[in-house]
């Protein structure tokens, strides 16, 4: 009885730890977007909350939800208006639904060999690590302390709880050392009514954000996330986290939530890596994340950004750095043919140096050349 209770408690703590493990990507982008005039915490955070709860219900696994990075980055620098961001979500969502409904996304996924998928995973891990260390460098006090704490926990049975310990400890330390200067009011009830972009907004969004983001979403949020989910949960049915289902859920939820002020959102292979590394295994992690976002969006609305700022970005950067480093140095790479390692490393380098879509394209070209070489020699080209 006691052992069963302890096991359940450990499982719940792991899910809680996993739920906050992706904050290193989520917090900087969302805080940056909410600082731009016209973007409201109610629509943005409520959108994340509803998306996460839907994902928990559909997948029953810790499939993450993240802002679409290309869109969020352009919002932060002032190149995209709220109406254009809404149009981007509707365009990308509609295209993803069409690709899933016609089966095109399934055919695309079949064309991507294992060596290229492993290269994308290498690139994702390296990107996570670099982003994490950048956040640590921006806030060296909190970031360095968080890295030290994660290193200590690494040698204990509680290593998977590192993200939860770091976030709670860092937020408490921030409050003690001056975070109470934030003027937070009491919670209330905040809701967003639907609005719709104009034709001009759709035209601007199509070339500015939708087309560049779509390539990144297909490569990272759909193909790479599906491949990593299959690796982490090999006993699941293949259709459970297939590219088709991931594209369909991303598309439908963006189309439904965008008019209410939600940011364009997608799944993310990096988020899955971080959540799994720190203990998430089931629907509980995305459900907890979703409830947290709903509480912020509905309860604090315009002040949600101030609440998010209670968690130092340097601390969550340390979480990303650890998860990304472990993913990048995957032992499976050592077990493949030397020629495959070339494809894997080349794909990963381009993913980091350019972007995920370019890495996928270069990897496919390199694998085609490698396979052609082996065919000419009459040898098998497997990994």
Describe the model.
This protein has helices at 2-20, 23-34, 41-59, 69-76, 82-102, 104-110, 114-138, 140-154, 162-176, 199-232, 243-257, 269-277, 284-300, 304-308, 313-328, 338-353, 356-376; strands spanning 66-67, 265-266. The chain has 383 residues and is an all-alpha fold. It has one domain (2-180, 218-376). It has a two-stranded antiparallel ribbon. It starts with a helix and ends in a 7-residue tail after the last helix. The model has no long low-confidence stretch (mean pLDDT 86).
Compressed to H and E, one letter per element, the order equals HHHEHHHHHHHHEHHHHHH
- Tally of domains: 1
Q: Whole-number radius of gyration?
A: 21 Å
Q: Which residues sit in consecutive blocks of at least 5 with pLDDT less than 50?
A: none
Indicate the proportion of strand residues.
under 5%
Q: What fraction, in percent, of the residue positions are helical?
A: over 70%
Distance between the termini: 47 Å
Tally of extended strands?
A: 2
Please tag this protein with its features.
mainly alpha; 17 helices; single chain; two-stranded antiparallel ribbon; 383 residues
Summarize the structure.
This protein has 383 residues and is mostly helical. It has helices spanning 2-20, 23-34, 41-59, 69-76, 82-102, 104-110, 114-138, 140-154, 162-176, 199-232, 243-257, 269-277, 284-300, 304-308, 313-328, 338-353, 356-376; strands at 66-67, 265-266.
